[in-house]
Structure formats: C-alpha cells, structure tokens
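Hi P.,

Sorry for the delay on this. The queue was packed all week, but I finally got your sequence through. Input first:
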Amino acid sequence: MLRKILSLIVLISTVQAHAQTKRPNIVFILADDLGYADIGAYGQQKIKTPHLNNLAHKGIKFTQFYTGTSVCAPSRSSLLTGQHTGHTYIRGNKEIQPEGQEPLADSVITIAMQLQDAGYVTGAFGKWGLGMVGTSGDPNKKGFDEFFGYNCQRQAHTYYPDHLWNNQEKINLKGKNIYAAELIHEKTLAFIDDNKDKSFFLFVPTVLPHAELAAPKDSLYRMYENQFEETPYKSTHYANVDKPRAMYAAMVTRLDLHVGQIVQKLEELGIADNTIIMFASDNGAHQEGGADPHFFKSSGELKGIKRSLYEGGIRTPFIAFWPTKIKENQVTDSQAAFWDIMPTLLSLTETKNTAYTDGISIVPTLLTKGKQQKRDYLYWEFHEEGGRQAVRQGDWKLIVQKVKEPTQTYMELYNLKEDPSESENCAPQNPKKVEQLLQLIKEAHKESALFPLTS
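Then the structure:
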C-alpha cells in the first residue's frame, strides 16, 4: 500500500512538473475588417461586445497597435512573416483565377513554420488568402498541420458559400445553406479539444464582420433588429439586406460570442492558464455590402477606414490575455505592429528565430518585465488607388499619396500627439521633417517585382 501511495505521489508530481514546464499554447484571433472602435473596450456605444470587453479588462489593451497595412492579403503576410510591407512577400491583393491569390513563395518562412518545427501542433481556421491549395502558399506548406475555411479571400465575400477547404479536400456545401462562420467556429473548437494535451498554435482568421452583410436571423440579430433607423441595401454583388445596420451589429456581436466560446473551451479543459490569447483586426473598418462605419463611429476619433493609410485604416484594437502572466486591466500607448508578433511569440515559447524580421519582441510590455526595446520607426505600403506609403517615427507621421503617379504625388505630415485625428496637414511648415521621414521611407522600401511601387 505504501509503495502504491509513493508511486501515486511521484506520478502527481511528474504531471504537475510537466504542466509547469509545458510551453504555452497560443491563440491568435484575427477579425476581418473590424474597425478600431467597433468593440466596447475601444469606445463602441451601439454594439455589444461583452466577451472582448472582459478580455481587455483581464489583460492588456494597446491603444497604438498597427496592422500590416489597410487590406487583407498583405496585412496577413506581414503578420505571418514578421516583416512590414516594404519587405514582406505579399504586398497587395493580387487575384489568381479561377480561385486564390498570389501565393507566398517557397522561400518565405512563417511563424507557424517555426513553431511547427519546434514541436507545436498548428491549425488555421477561417480565411487564408495567401496561396491556393497545391501552390507554394498552401497553408499546409506554410506551417499549418490543419486548415479549414476559405482558401480564397474572394470566395469569402459570401457567408453561404458553395464550398470550403479542409486541407487538400474541397468540402461541397452547394445547396446546403450553411453559414460558414459557424461551421468554421465548430472546427476551431474541435481543434482545441483534439490538442488539449499538446502545445498548440491556433490561428483564427475569422471572416467576421467582413462584407457581405449576412447572418442567421437568430437572437443575435433580433437584439438589434429594431434598434436603428435603416435604409435597405440593394446590390448585384453582395446580398440584399433589409436592415444593414442591425446585420452588421449582429455580426460583430457574433464575433464577440465566438471569442467568448473559445475562452470558455480553454477554461473547461483546464488549459486557460497556460494559453496566451491575442486579438486584432487585419485592417480598418470597411463600407462594402451596406456597412456604415460612420454611423457606428467604427474608427472612433481616428481618420479614415480600410484602404487608407490614415490611422483609421491601419490602427487596430489589440488585446492580449494570459492568466497569471499578463496583469489585469492594463492599458498601454506603446507603439507596436503586426511584424512584432513573430519575435514576440517566439520569445514567449523560447523558440529560436530562424528568419529575418522587422519586428521587435514586445514581451517586456506584455509581462511588465525588463526594459522594452525601442524602435526607430513604423512603415506601411498600399498598392491600390495610385499607391501610398507611410512612416511613423515618434509622434510624427508622413503619408505619401499617389506614389505610382509622380506628377500627382503629394505629402501629408501629422503630429499624432497634437493631432490624433490627422485633421491638419503640416507638411508645408515642416520641410526638414518631411525630408527626414522621406529618407526613412526610402530605407524601408525594397522594390518587389511582383508588387512594383516606385519603379
């Protein structure tokens, strides 16, 4: 009997030691076209987001965190490769027919590949947009053991698609009237169940609340059905919507509910304390499909929406939550961006970085330990609408408009501390500052044959 008791004590001690030394799980949730102020924790008044608000309250909220750029594919490329859009491989939305986008090259190393090599189980559930199945950008070739969702971001414009992808398998949904966001969410929760005893990296690039505006008319929709003055939206491209404001609000609240259910799943399985959750959006708020970012004040007091390089196009809500590790109810104005995520997660998991990155680890800010490394500047590119470049150094931000049209190129300079809404272009009064920031732009941009900008 004594021997059995001793054996049991040893077993319990071994399990406890394993739990203490097990590398943290990672859940990175990426909303699609969610505005900086579309959730309550960032000032939203009309849409209910209790789970994200609670996550912000129990973790750390960044007020000056930035996306890769102001549209889908290049922003995601920046996030996964740890490089800003002056260096990252995909710098624009380039379509491939009949389905897919320009693929990440074989040479591109992603954060998922590095974590996979370090022994993590990896999964991505949602919208990919970085290479069709069978190409060099296939998610299974870019570090993900399992992918389920939309491979092509163009296909993700509909919430009731005729197919999705599960790794190499095309899942036929034609005629089944399945709301894809819910099906993808079910697969997300199943991944957590299946890998609860392993170290995992779960990437959740959800399609919510990207256009079109569509969702089941369930209790979430009824919550807003009669709350707002409405003008029906008619379209030949997106779904017709009788009450677009109610639909958009319901989609954001559905996103919030999904976040809450992921947290609940982690807690039920007893692995929440060893899981870091991060939440962001891929770019600013959109106005396609009947969405009304001005009504909801989706950008808050910031200027601009999706596709602009004003703050409203590239600043994102960013929340990080890790029980017992990240102190509760923190708010930081520390400047950080998507390309910081790779070095940060590799540092947290004690994984050696084998790829070039423009980012810095923000672990000292997250854990309030040690001295946070300072950066010289932040940089963005946008390759549509004549091309744009922007750089932020300290409080100063320069935007170069119409880069691809030299006879129409012009500069906008703002001091974000004095003018956070970018209302007064002070470039004419500050030629030396403009020239200084232009030099940083030239330093940051490496020309791309696939996505030419300045040549």
